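B., you asked whether I could sanity-check this one before it goes into the benchmark set. Here's the sequence:
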Amino acid sequence: MNPLKWALVEPFYKLIIGEDRKGQLNLLTKMLGLPLVGLLLFLLIWQGASTHINTSLGQFPGPVQTYEQFISLNQEADEAALKEAAFYQRQEDRNAARMEQDPNYEPRVREYVGPPTFFDQIYRSLVTVMSGFILASIIAVPIGIVIGLSANAYAAVNPLIQIFKPVSPLAWLPLVTMVVSAVYVTDDPMFDKAFLNSMFTVLLCCLWPTIINTAAGVATVTQDLKNVSQVLNLSWWTHVRKIVLPCSIPMMFTGLRISLGIAWMVLIAAEMLAQNPGLGKFVWDEFQNGSSNSLGRIMVAVLVIGVVGFVLDRGMLLLQRAVSWDKSVALR
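And here's what the prediction gave me:
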């Protein structure tokens, strides 16, 4: 069985067979009981506070109203899927009838251009953030390794890192938009400019934690390991692959997890400001809409943003556990 699955199942198994029941109950309480207590307290506080907050759009939505809006968004997505299927079915029937009359007719299929659903915008945001994060990681990890191995390279690059690290995504976005508009000029674009604007803004903002933490991880390589590498006469690449990377993985993944969290926050802000398709645009559109359901829908988006961020972080943690050489270290 997969080690992760066994870690989840093991307490229940030992409890059933009667092995250390007190210890297993304590473990289950820590794993499930305490998070449930925290969640219930949060819901109670949320419900109690929402009944005392009245806005220009009505009462602030509580958990029940937010859940109702989630169901409504799900129904709208189902209706949109039916409309899309009917749209393509009508084209297929029409093309089939035309081809019966004229065998030489070349059928054409038009793309469905209906408004994106809530779930379409979640998917769009996920694709954008992962594209920017992966590109940033490909750039940041090698830079971090190089400046971690060379004090001179670190001295040269560190001032630039400290200058650009605190720059807000709201400052980068106009520059990125102008550069993309000027450089990305083509009659047959592979990617739309809105996607590139958001992706490069994410890239520029999430580079720095990975660079800094990777360099710090490389610097933790002990002198004993460096001596072993010299005795074995390892090449630079072999030294990095066999000595440096295994030692720096914990700090490197700390940087990657921080970068991914920053990337997700930056993307939502960039989508709101630039009106690029995604969850950020959904939130802004609902705010501008000003209907009685808008606050509930915004709360749905806020919770989805949080849950997606949590899932992305847990995914990075699982990846770190998979590639880490020291399986005995507790990672959280």
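One thing to flag: The longest strand covers residues 54-55. Otherwise nothing jumped out at me.
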